Amino acid sequence: MTRLIAPLFLVVFALVPLWLNDPYLMNALIITGIFTICAMSLNLLLGYTGQLSLGHVAFFGIGAYVSALTALGFDVSLPFGLRITHEGGSPLLGFVLAILITGVTGYLIGRLSFRVRGAYFVIVTISFAEVVRLVALNWVELTQGPLALTSIPNMTLPLPGLGDLTLRTKMQNYYLVLGVAVLSYLVVARLVASRFGRAMRGLKENESLALSLGVNATRTLTIAATVSAAMAGAAGSLYAHYIRIIDPDVFLFSYTVTMVIMVVAGGKGSLAGPLVGGLIFGLLPVALRPVMAPEAQWIVYGGILIAILFVMPNGIVPALANLTARRRPASLTKTPETPAEAGAQS
Question: Is residue 336 part of a domain?
């Protein structure tokens, strides 16, 4: 049953713009979709390798700034009298560069930080995110610092024979985010189902045993970090070209907390978990905003999270999978107990 969650999500959300005419709700769905992509990327690390990254927002922010600066252009001075000038380019080029640069950054951070485990890795990721935030805040010549980068152009897609399509409307941006989310889901699903995915799960379940079987821990975790960072960078690029203004607040720690909540509540280590968690905790603030004060919203938000984890410690999707398995007829789940029984049944 849980295998049907992702296709069901795709069908339902592909039809949403056909009946939803509320711009506010469309905006909420677009932002939720962007952070769901981030949650899927974090799930690749937290869910399948067991490595908690509390600096994941750094890749999101780097992707946003790289894409925005590629589209807007920049003129910065460097040491030794060097100067780099860029006149501005295609937002699509910015999207590609955001993926590449965040992927390379994730690789470098992985090579350095996966030599340690546990709390040390968490500290490294938090420190990296804070360093990147301070760079964005203080390198005013490049990032405008607290003044923010403004008038970021909308995403533009080339249409062969028809020119370029600029995605200005919410419906166009909605389908762009949906398309990137589907592609991200397929990438994660393909990785998880491969030999590489088995190596990731082996390191999570029993690292010593995995190492004895020839799994290269540093290489496996670094590749996972690279893909995860690239996906977060793609989400950051989408965010920059949709919001059209970014500042150092894009590196807020609360964004990382939101990603972790989406993964853990939905079910870490499951493909559909970030989708379910992203939908619930992305739209929950929107549902609560009209009926209660901001302070009460966070209380209810936290209370719902605690209730979900208390009733379903492994998350919503694994709980649904276990419930479905328990309800199957015994004849479908019974396995032979002895070789003789197995031979008789064959």
Answer: no
Considering its fold, how many domains does the chain have in total? 1
Rounded to an integer, what distance in angstroms lies between the CA atom of residue 256 and that of residue 261? 9
CB 270 within 8 A of CB 279: no
Q: Mapping DSSP to helix (H, G, I), strand (E, B) and coil, where does residue 76 land?
A: strand
* Alpha-carbon Rg for the chain in angstroms: 22
150-162, pLDDT tens digit by residue? 989 999 988 877 7
Q: Is residue 85 included in any domain, yes or no?
A: yes
Q: 317 and 273 in contact (C-beta within 8 Å)?
A: yes
**Inside any domain, residue 323:** yes
Cβ neighbors of 153 (< 8 A, separation 6 or more) are 71, 72, 91, 166, 241, 244
125 lies in which domain range? 2-331
Residues 6+ apart with CB under 8 A from 227: 41, 44, 103, 106, 187, 191
Token pair in block for residue 16? 């949403």
pTM of the model: 0.89
| pLDDT tens column, 49-104 | 888 888 899 999 999 999 999 999 988 887 777 888 888 888 999 999 999 999 99
Q: Is residue 338 part of a domain?
A: no
The residue with tokens 């939803």 is: 20
In terms of C-beta density within 10 A (0-12 exposed, 13-18 middle, 19 or more buried), how is residue 213 classed? exposed
How far is 173 from 175, CA to CA, in rounded Å?
A: 5
